[in-house]
Amino acid sequence: MKGTEKKSKEEQSTEQEAVRTEEVTEVDTDQSGNISENDKKTEEAGQNEEKTPQDIIIELQKENTELKDQYLRKLADFDNYRKRMIREKQDAIDYANTNLLKDLISTLDDFDRALESVNQADSTEEINPVVQGITMINKQMRAMLESKYNLVAYGEKGDGFDHDKHEAIATNQAAVAEPVCAEIYLKGYMLKDRVVRPAKVMVHMPDGSVSAD
Q1: Do residues 204 and 176 make contact, with C-beta atoms less than 8 angstroms apart?
Q2: Which of 28, 69, 103, 203 is deepest in the core (most CB within 10 A)?
């Protein structure tokens, strides 16, 4: 009997401790649940704070300014692209025959050399018709290339020296105020506003005796 009573007391004690543990666990759970709910309410309260109309207007104005700036940039980029495409297309049309014209320039050089050699030699009645024929063909070809293809020859004695249009083969000091083309060894050619071949020249450089005005 005594053993049974002792055992019952121990069981009762164990059951009481288990009940206490469950109560403590429930309290902790309730407290953590309350804390989580409080945090959630606080976050929701922060999120649900309504902005004033003035704040909304400022944000919308800022967004509108940014979008307008982006639109203007895109519009400018597109306009530049469109102009570049038009320019490149026009250049392709204007200078499509550049290589062919460069080959023809060699033939024009041959005409110039032939006429120059004839002019330097003693002319006779027998060669005058030939010279006239060569001169006529040369003029006609140059006129056709200039009117139809805008290929223009340049380079004369006394022209001012231009680095973009002339190639100096030789230089000499002379009484000039600025560099001047003294001799034209080979004429230059321009196709519209582009140099196809620079003129090859001999240049007189200022020797200091003449001052530039």
Answers
A1: yes
A2: 203
Could you write out the three-class secondary structure of 35-96? HHHHHHHHHHHHHCCCCCHHHHHHHHHHHHHHHHHHHHHHHHHHHHHHHHHHHHHHHHHHCC
- When mean pLDDT is compared across 31-40, 65-74, 87-96, 181-190, the lowest value belongs to 31-40
For 125-171, the DSSP string reads: TTTHHHHHHHHHHHHHHHHHHHHHH-EEEE--TTPBP-TTTEEEEEE
pLDDT in tens, 25-78: 554 555 555 545 555 555 554 554 677 888 889 999 999 999 999 999 999 999
> What one-character DSSP code corresponds to residue 195?
E
Beta bridge partners of 90: none
98 close to 196: Cβ distance less than 8 angstroms? yes
SS3 state at 97:
coil
Tokens of 200: 């090859």
pTM of the shown model:
0.60
- Collapse the DSSP code of 123 into the 3-class scheme (helix H, G, I; strand E, B; otherwise coil) and give the result: coil
Task: Give residue 193's domain range.
Answer: 94-206
Whether residue 161 is contained in a domain is answered as yes
Model confidence at 24, in pLDDT bands (50, 70, 90)? very low
Q: Is residue 137 part of a domain?
A: yes
Q: Residue 164 has which token pair?
A: 């973009």
Q: How far is the C-alpha of 76 from the C-alpha of 62, rounded, in Å?
A: 21
- Torsion, CA 96, CA 99, CA 104, CA 107, rounded to 10: 170
Total number of domains in the chain: 1
- The whole-angstrom separation of Cα 203 and Cα 184 is 9
